[in-house]
Amino acid sequence: MGYQLTTKLLANSLTGVKIAANFWTTKDAVATLLFAHATGFHKETWDPTIYYLKDSSVKCNFIAFDARNHGNSALENKSLLSDECSWRTLSEDILGLVEQLRFQRPLIGIGHSMGGCTTLLAEESRPNTFDGIVAFEPILHPTKGSTMGVELVEPTKRRRSVWENRQAVREYLNSKRFFRTWDKRVLEEYVNNGTYQNPGGKIELKCPPSQEAATFAGAPAISEYCFENLNKVKIPVSFVGGDRSATILPDNISIFAKECPQGVAHVIPGHHLIPQEQPENTARIIHEFVASLVHQESQQASQAI
């Protein structure tokens, strides 16, 4: 059976904001994957990874959503957004989605950077929200006094956010070192779906720089708290980091895994932006985790009969 794509705007049952989400569904699904993006990105940046996963041997439903102040969610919630962004609130948005939609189990959380942290935080807050988690470079800090993200706040406030057309956006991004290592398909998703035509006819980022900066500013306190409570995460968790990451030190990936009863660490060639740079490899890592989890749950079900 093939996949059907639907886009929905959901009124979050716990927090009241609207959450935009893409649903890739198939009747053959044996699990559900819920994708949470990084700060400054949006749900469609997961599409190239999902493209590969759709062809994998383990069929799943895929749901990728925009955080409340990112992507299409940001456009819908513009009048509700404050100057501060609590990552705890972002994790509550995840809990609201899970509670509202009652996804087919097993439910596996897939998160990158901020999305990895908020997915883990949701599981810490409400155990067994997920049956497993794959966290790519999650924003966690193993010591007190974290300043993670603080250095990005002021530069982000000043970043350019309006262009004449999408070709101008494309050329601008290609001129920046930050985007040069991205897979071209992911970059196209960012250009086409991370922007919109504003009332003046210009092309503008859906996530305003002020909201992206506010999200970075919310990182330090919660990155410490989430790390300190990793022992509450009893489900299988795969922590994935890049060996050249300047954001999450490779050694910290192993430290994170040791805090979780069923945590495992994988350090692969790459930087912080693994899903943006390596969608095919990202899909392979996710597939291996999902296949193992589904097999394990199938064995447990057989033994229970």
Write the layout of secondary structure elements.
Blueprint: E1 4-11, E2 18-25, E3 31-36, H1 47-53, E4 60-65, H2 71-76, H3 87-101, E5 107-112, H4 114-125, E6 132-136, H5 150-157, E7 162-163, H6 166-174, H7 177-180, H8 184-193, E8 195-197, E9 203-205, H9 209-217, H10 219-228, E10 237-242, H11 250-259, E11 263-268, H12 274-277, H13 279-304
Parallel strand pairs: 3-4, 3-5, 5-6, 6-10, 10-11
Antiparallel strand pairs: 1-2, 2-4, 7-9, 8-9
Helix pairs in contact: 1-13, 3-4, 4-10, 5-9, 6-8
State the gist of this model.
One of its GO terms (molecular function) is hydrolase activity. With 305 residues, the chain is an alpha/beta fold. It is built from 13 helices and 11 strands.
Structure write-up:
- The chain is α/β, with parallel strands linked by helices.
- It has one domain (4-146, 218-304): 3-Layer(aba) Sandwich (Rossmann fold).
- Helix content is 43%, strand content 19%.
- It has helices at 47-53, 71-76, 87-101, 114-125, 150-157, 166-174, 177-180, 184-193, 209-217, 219-228, 250-259, 274-277, 279-304; strands at 4-11, 18-25, 31-36, 60-65, 107-112, 132-136, 162-163, 195-197, 203-205, 237-242, 263-268.
- The strands form 2 sheets. The protein has an 8-stranded mixed β-sheet, sandwiched between helices. Strands 7-9-8 form a 3-stranded antiparallel β-sheet.
- The radius of gyration is 18 Å and the shape is globular.
- The two termini are 29 Å apart.
- Residues 33-284 form the AB hydrolase-1 domain.
- Keywords: Hydrolase.
- This is Alpha/beta-hydrolase.
